[in-house]
Amino acid sequence: MSDFGKLDQNMPNPWQPKIVAFLCRWCSYAGADLAGVSRLSYPPTTRVILVPCSSRISSYHIIKALMAGADGVLVSGCHPGDCHYLTGNLLARRKFILLKRLLSYMGVAEQRVQFAWVSASEGEEFAALIKEITEKVKAVGPFRGFLRKDGEADAATL
Amino acid sequence: MNRLAEHPLQILDAKDLTAFMDALAAGFDLQVPLVAGDATRFGPYRKDAPCDFSQTPPAHPAKTLLLPNPEVLFRYTKDAGGRITLSEDPLDADLRVALGVRACDVRAFEALDAVFLRRGRVDTAYQARRDSLCILGMGCVAPSPLCFCDRMGSHPFDTHGMDALIIPLTGGWVLEALTERGRKVLETAASLLRAASAEEKRQVAALRTKGRERKSGAPVDFEVLAGTVAASYKDPFWETLATRCLGCGICTFVCPVCSCFTLEDTGKTLSGGRQRAWDSCMFPAFTREASGHNPREGMDRRLKQRFFHKFSYSIENGEPPGCVGCGRCVEKCPAAIDIREIVDFFSAEAPDV
Amino acid sequence: MPQPYNTYLRETLQTLLREKELERWLAFEESSLPLKPRPVFPETSEACDTVVFNGFCVQNLATYLSRYKGRRIGVLVKGCDRRAIAVLVEEKQLAREDLFLLGVPCPGMLNRTQLLTEFPGLDADQIAEEGGHLSLKISGETRTLQREDYLLPACRVCHHRTPEDVDALLDPPPLDAPETEESFATIVSSVGEMPQNDRAALFASEFSRCILCYACRNVCPLCYCDTCFTDSLTPAWMTASPEPGNIFFYHVNRMMHMAGRCVACGSCEWACPEHIQLHLLFGKITADVRDLFAYEAGIDKDAPQPLSHFSEDDPDEQIG
């Protein structure tokens, strides 16, 4: 999928993962904004997509992002109990836990698909979250596509 | 090197089969029925990939050799300056050798030829693939109880369209070159072959007679069938059949004749392409129009399309019938829709005009 | 199944067709293929004369009910057909009062492919289903097989064979075949315990055979959307080519749609022309829903469907 895997790790510009981040507009996107205006530094690995609520995101979007060349996907919304729409993130949480388990069961490295709750006041937490997910996705290497007969885990050795 | 010309029937001992395939694969792109699950499907011969010649016919039709799914029609790339470059994949030119294709699938190639070569427009990629395909066909010693090629104007040892015929015996294969091209291909493995003995010739003749005499039912009169099917548009038969049909695409995908396709653009920003993928007239989206209107919304209409195309339109247009009697759809249909029952129903019925 | 049972079944259908003023029955009859009964929709007493029931009547008949909405239909239901109807009623796709459900205590359905592979050319006349075993008559000899060794994967782990809340139940049952102790949890955890690369390779190998014919979707009683996401053009989530991305997208998203709804009838696996082990997927989602939300589709009728509901105490697997 991604041509980045072909780059030599020792080159001056080593491979960096591409992470699609679906952020809810009320909490997590505002948290990302706060990280920015606070001039916090975090890896430039994410491509942010603004969504109205974490429950807007379904398995379609997550799998399609990986199909289209992402190495990891982050879905982030308000903390449980704080949803602007009262229950969106609670409904999303059930969906995500099933999807996360199913993907991991089918052999997709579990580091690739992550969920996290970030509030509008958590700029520092957002920066830390991006650092953490970047490290996790880096550890499993570039995503080379679904249903590969040679598996997934060996990608890290590329 | 004239051994094959002197002795048309050559024997390959069972123990030499791997060496035979290795010899062919050294010179040509060799395609064999590869094992996938409990089915076989034609694919490139590899030493480590098991192949199986015992399925009569192989579970997947040999049309995969002519109509890859998907098939890239062209690709594009866009460079940093925004310049777009179009490219097409090179046409097949080197000889490809398909080993173990059955008579039904070779008959089906003729129906595909009618679509891709003879409708006033030649599909160059198809033609290149067709022309470069050397068919080492295989006779069916033990035809499946579900196939009925004998009713569709063929028989299990039909050599029509083949470059060579293989007849499996207990101890090995009997090989008979039928064309100059077939002879050339077999000669690359000549050291593994020997002339057939009188006893082996007798066995072959007996098998051929048995094959030719196979009678799984009454031969189909396609002119009569075309007429009765064409007149059946309002026959409640179709609605009854449609009550059971699930509308999946199994029958069309395992059919060696079905060739309908859809086009898909698989573009990303900097590169992409257009490709052809198999489609099925059993899917509602096959005819759904941009307005949302679907002229074949009902299952009965889609079923009618499938069988009218096979038995009526093709004959009217002077093309080969759309069914070669391989029996694959009979075997695979989850709702047990049996094309033989349809043929029987309309062959028995007088045109009610 | 012994012939007297089919006679008893036919007579029951004929009586009920008349007494309950049914438009038609949904049941099974033999087809032109061995060990593959097909659905039949008899409207008259005479038409009921071909009806059979045996260990090969796998297909979930609830699939056909969407074609008869609002009509008075009788259905011969196994445990899984009944559960599918319960989900369809809950989702307001069917009205329970339109239907007359004749329950048949299911003995667990048999694996046709497995039997035909081991005993090529086997015909219905050669098999006698007797309690927990099968008697096969092959060239004059009788072979006895344990029924549970030849059950379909979904049927091996089924613990709801006898349909509940039906309008009439066939009594006596056709067979008295014992259930196994297994559950999807055991199958799924044995896959889950494999190293990640092996799991990836297992699913790659299974799904490399997928031809995207959508038989699994079309045979499913609970896949009733007018337009499936596979056919959506705006957005076009996937295309028609059987490429790994499309195949993965299709199967995972279909499973997500089945979460909390799948009744584990196994029709999808049975219909698959490639014999892909789909029970590894629907078994996983069924086991997870049960494990996480203590819910069984078509059984827990009073609880809301798990994915249209939540609890503040739900498990949370956010990063960290």
Radius of gyration of chain B: 22 Å
Distance between the termini of chain B: 63 Å
- The count of DSSP E runs of length 2 or more, i.e. the number of strands of chain B, is 12
Helix/strand structural class of chain C? alpha/beta
SSE order and pairing:
The complex is a heterotrimer of chains A (158), B (353) and C (320).
Chain A: E1 19-24, H1 28-37, E2 46-51, H2 59-67, E3 72-77, H3 88-105, E4 113-117, H4 123-140
Parallel strand pairs in A: 1-2, 1-3, 3-4
Chain B: H1 3-6, E1 9-13, H2 17-27, E2 29-36, E3 39-44, E4 71-78, E5 84-87, E6 96-102, H3 103-116, H4 124-131, E7 133-138, E8 164-169, E9 172-177, H5 180-187, E10 193-195, H6 198-212, H7 222-230, H8 236-244, H9 250-254, E11 261-265, E12 271-278, H10 299-316, H11 328-332, H12 339-348
Parallel strand pairs in B: 2-6, 6-7, 7-8
Antiparallel strand pairs in B: 1-9, 1-10, 2-3, 4-5, 4-12, 8-9, 11-12
Chain C: H1 3-19, E1 24-29, E2 38-40, E3 73-77, H2 79-90, E4 99-103, H3 112-118, E5 127-130, E6 133-138, E7 141-146, H4 153-156, E8 168-169, H5 184-192, H6 196-207, H7 215-218, H8 244-258, H9 267-271, H10 279-293
Parallel strand pairs in C: 1-3, 3-4, 4-8
Antiparallel strand pairs in C: 1-2, 5-6, 6-7
What's this entry about, in short?
By secondary structure, chain A is of the alpha/beta class.
How would you describe this structure in keywords?
heterotrimer, A: 158 residues, alpha/beta, four-stranded parallel β-sheet, 4 helices, 4 strands, globular, disordered N terminus, B: alpha+beta, 2 domains, four-stranded antiparallel β-sheet
